[in-house]
Amino acid sequence: MSRRALSDTAYSSFALYIEYLFGLIASVLIARALLPSDMGIYSLLVWVAANAIVVANAGITLGAIKFIAELRGSGRDDLTAVLVRRLRSMQTKLLLVVILALGVIFAFAHGRIAPGVDLWLLCLLILSVALRAPYMFNIAVLKGAQDFRSTAVVAVVGASFNLALVVLAWAQAASLPMFVAIYVVSSVVFYAVSQWRASRFARLAADNTAMLAPEMETRMRHHLRVVAFTTVFGTIGSSEIELLSLNLLSDAADAGLFKVANAVASGVALLVPGVLSAQLLPIMANAQGRGEGVAARRFVDMSVWLYVLGAPLIAAGAVFSSHVVDLLYGDAYAAAAPVLIVLLIARVASVLGQGATAYLLSADRQTALMQLTVLFSALRLAAAFASTYAYGLTGAILSTMVLALFGSAITIRLAMRVSASGLPWARLLRITVAAALPALCCIPIAGSLAPLPGLLAGTAVFAVGYPLAIWILRGLSEEDAGHVRGLVAKLRRTRMRSD
Fold first, then answer.
1. Vertex 53 angle, CA 48 and 58, to 5°
2. 230 and 313 fall within a common domain
3. Do both 159 and 75 map to the same domain?
4. Which among 10, 234, 256, 385 is least buried, having the fewest CB atoms inside 10 angstroms?
5. Same domain, residue pair 105 and 194
């Protein structure tokens, strides 16, 4: 790997983790400052803003990354500024439509969407959309130009400023309007810093009278039409749509409980099995190039390893969910503990299907994946409202879990059919038992210790008990076991040399 590629990877990873970590800390502090009902309203407003931004960009950001990188790769750097100007003009027009639509919705339904929130605060939220949509476009421009150092600068400055404001507001026991105002102020910072880093394209475009080739114009329009539909529909369908259904059909407090539980579940799934999922597509593509049989075996191996990483999370969550919620959010959110268990199953299940997704992409089955995405997005939208209307929060989380399990199962089944392979079900059962054994040992610990010491003790039990159980129960394949034996032997030789 080249030094430039290593540098880009480092900057990109650093920006991702800083933005996620600081955002998670900020969300915990906001939840601790607000009651579940206010947290539900705040989460819904941020959800509305985030999805409005997706609609305003409507695939334009992906188009910017793709076509800027393509022009630079073909040596036509002189046209990148022209392309940016063209795409920015399209985004500005679409953004105006989104702002107008939000204004109409808030003017006539703000009492239903955000009861007790003043209209001027919703106007500030619209302002944040007007700032964050071009900020996301600027980030796409920088990514297309492979300027990942600038994306890291924007992420660190913006996330740090936002977290600092949230800490100050939390220390002063601020209320809902203050946190909405902070969201808007942080939008100004994100936009300003990103505009500064991407401004060179605007300067180049001002003096450039060149035009894009008709062939590129045609390709770009086709790309935007296809990507706009899949991006908008897929993002909204896979987002926290339950926040809207719970606020409208149940109670804002239920939405607050859902939000805090989902933040923890999504974070755990992202940082543990999700770490492996980031490597899946290149691994599968490489295996595909070596032969269909290699790719099929790699799909099975990766799916099993995702389950090896995900099973103990569900087992530990079933025992320690109340400890996690109490430690992070306090007594006010105690009712979120069972919600966390269900959503942890849902989020881990979604990750388990990523091995199959990577295999299907490497096997050029994108059309089938797109159809599944559209189908399950529609099902999620319908199920979220129907189940919430019938059973409130319980219905919302159960429908989320069922559809996540069903979606991953269908994707894995499709990959199995394409690859003509099968999963080692007996081995998966042994892995399940291996995860359940330390969980059973932790039940007395959870019942007798306070949240922090209980979690520390439980972590120690799982760190020792799960690998031991999975080894004894033969949860590892012979190849995996051979790698472990080799690693242990290497460690022994190193220790003997040091002695």
1. 125
2. no
3. yes
4. 10
5. yes
Domain that holds residue 292: 242-499
Pair 419, 295: CB distance under 8 Å: yes
Amino acid at 54: V
Q: How far apart are CA 232 and CA 224, in angstroms?
A: 11
Whether residue 208 sits in one domain with residue 350: no
pLDDT tens for each residue of 241-279: 999 999 999 989 999 999 999 999 988 887 766 556 555
Domain boundary among 178, 208, 239: 239
CB 126 within 8 A of CB 103: yes
- pLDDT of residue 364 exceeding 70, the answer is no
Which H, E and C letters describe the chain, residue by residue?
CCHHHHHHHHHHHHHHHHHHHHHHHHHHHHHHHCCHHHHHHHHHHHHHHHHHHHHHHCCHHHHHHHHHHHHHHCCCHHHHHHHHHHHHHHHHHHHHHHHHHHHHHHHHHHHHHCCCCCHHHHHHHHHHHHHHHHHHHHHHHHHHCCCHHHHHHHHHHHHHHHHHHHHHHHHCCCCHHHHHHHHHHHHHHHHHHHHHHHHHHHHHHHCCCCCCCHHHHHHHHHHHHHHHHHHHHHHHHHCCHHHHHHHHHCCHHHHHHHHHHHHHHHHHHHHCHHHHHCCHHHHHHHHHHHCHHHHHHHHHHHHHHHHHHHHHHHHHHHHHHHHHHHHHHCHHHCCHHHHHHHHHHHHHHHHHCHHHHHHHHHCCCHHHHHHHHHHHHHHHHHHHHHHHHHHHHHHHHHHHHHHHHHHHHHHHHHHHHHHCCCCCHHHHHHHHHHHHHHHHHHHHHHHHCCHHHHHHHHHHHHHHHHHHHHHHCCCCCHHHHHHHHHHHHHHHHHHHHHC
How many domains in the chain?
Answer: 2
What residue type is 233 in one-letter code? F
First to last CA, the chain: 37
Residues 175, 301: one domain?
A: no
Q: Which of the listed residues 178, 205, 239 is the one where a domain comes to its end?
A: 239
Rounded to the nearest 10°, the torsion over CA 340, 342, 346, 351 is 50
Same domain, 275 and 191: no
Taking the C-alpha atoms of residue 227 and residue 234, their distance in angstroms, rounded to an integer, is: 10
Reported as a single tens digit per residue, the pLDDT across 270-326 is 776 655 655 565 566 666 667 657 778 888 888 888 899 899 999 999 999 999 999
